[in-house]
Design brief:
Order of helices and strands: HHHHHHEEEHEHEHEEHEEEEEEHHH
Number of helices: 13
Strand content: 15-25%
Number of strands: 13
Distance between the termini: 57 Å
């Protein structure tokens, strides 16, 4: 731990006077002065508890998130800095010479949001709007949009990376590599977050790089929230540290690769998944997924047996519509249960076709 952090903790514990601390922070205060246009001595006098609580006050004056302020203006970028600040949460504070009880002081996490998109102008603005105030680093990897998606993203403050389609896993990894911070919130273009989840992310200390975060989904079908069936019990790992976690290279239904010591944490709040807007678009999407998955299974040596083609869809429908109470979602529950069964049948039928043809891919 560097000298700055040691003295910062000493001050918080009452073992270091403000005057003694000022000497080693003077270069830092000069940088602050240049940005805030306040004399260093005046700044310290006005904010006597600067070294412990000052970063938050700097944020108010500069209107810059304090984690961003510190990494950009006070230090060289350091992936361990957020950890050093978070250790202060367990230290008692000293106010007017009196030792107080332990006080939690959370510093804003350095989280980047990564989204992949193509022709998502109808929904991506809503997604990006839900992320305002969470991060100053939103990365959108665009794969040839022609409907103005890129312009909407830039208007919302996102960085747009334009590239050719390389499959879901590789394309997501492009965005992760381009992100500014190590903590990554990976979303699709039609996945917004609610206020409770945003607050949970902002208040989490992010001290353990081996933590992976399970996020609970609310799935919407043509505007209706589905509370039952397969879609009513949906959650995914979408928040992680890129130094230990990455997406695999699968073209579809990509999976995160993480170490065995990873610790799963579930955060409160929801990802709001506005997945279906009209039935025809949904059928086309599911057919494309079925073809891509059939190709994936073919390369893995899996078989499109009779049981998989006919019985698996039937059992899946019964499980989702009956046992998981999908019928309580009304017409939408029936449609989604049937769509899932149809997808399963198509996937294994295309796989069977590949095996019969001995082809490397289905003709598109």
């Amino acid at each position: 731990m560097g000298k700055f952090q040691i003295n910062l903790i000493s001050l918080a514990e009452g073992r270091c006077s403000l005057a003694a601390a000022e000497s080693f922070t003077w270069p830092l205060l000069e940088r602050i002065a240049r940005i805030t246009r306040i004399r260093c001595s005046t700044f310290v006098t006005l904010h006597s508890s600067f070294l412990y609580h000052g970063l938050e006050r700097i944020a108010r004056i500069t209107q810059i998130r304090y984690s961003t302020f510190v990494t950009r203006h006070c230090f060289a970028p350091d992936s361990t800095f957020n950890f050093h600040l978070s250790t202060l949460n367990s230290y008692p504070t000293t106010v007017n010479g009196q030792r107080t009880s332990k006080k939690k002081v959370f510093f804003a996490p350095m989280v980047s949001v990564v989204i992949i998109a193509k022709n998502e102008a109808h929904i991506i603005g809503k997604t990006l709007q839900s992320l305002q105030g969470l991060t100053d680093d939103m990365v959108v990897v665009d794969n040839g949009s022609t409907d103005g998606t890129q312009d909407i993203c830039r208007q919302q403050g996102a960085r747009v990376i334009e590239t050719v389609w390389q499959g879901y896993g590789p394309t997501k990894n492009i965005g992760i590599q381009a992100a500014q911070y190590n903590w990554i919130l990976s979303l699709d273009a039609d996945e917004a977050i609610d206020a409770k989840l945003k607050a949970a992310i902002k208040n989490h200390p992010f001290t353990n790089e081996n933590e992976i975060f399970n996020l609970v989904f609310k799935n919407f079908f043509c505007g209706k929230w589905l509370k039952y069936g397969e879609w009513g019990t949906d959650s995914h790992i979408r928040l992680f540290n890129r130094t230990v976690v990455h997406w695999d290279t699968a073209a579809v239904h990509e999976q995160l690769q993480f170490p065995p010591q990873a610790k799963l944490v579930t955060l409160p709040g929801y990802v709001l998944h506005y997945t279906v807007h009209n039935l025809e678009q949904y059928r086309q999407k599911m057919d494309r997924y079925a073809r891509l998955n059939a190709q994936k299974y073919f390369e893995q040596g899996k078989k499109g047996a009779f049981v998989k083609r006919w019985l698996s869809p039937l059992f899946g429908f019964v499980a989702n519509y009956i046992f998981k109470l999908g019928f309580l979602d009304g017409k939408e529950g029936w449609i989604t249960a049937m769509a899932t069964a149809r997808y399963t049948h198509q996937k294994y039928s295309y796989l069977h076709q590949l095996q019969q043809q001995g082809a490397s891919q289905i003709e598109r």
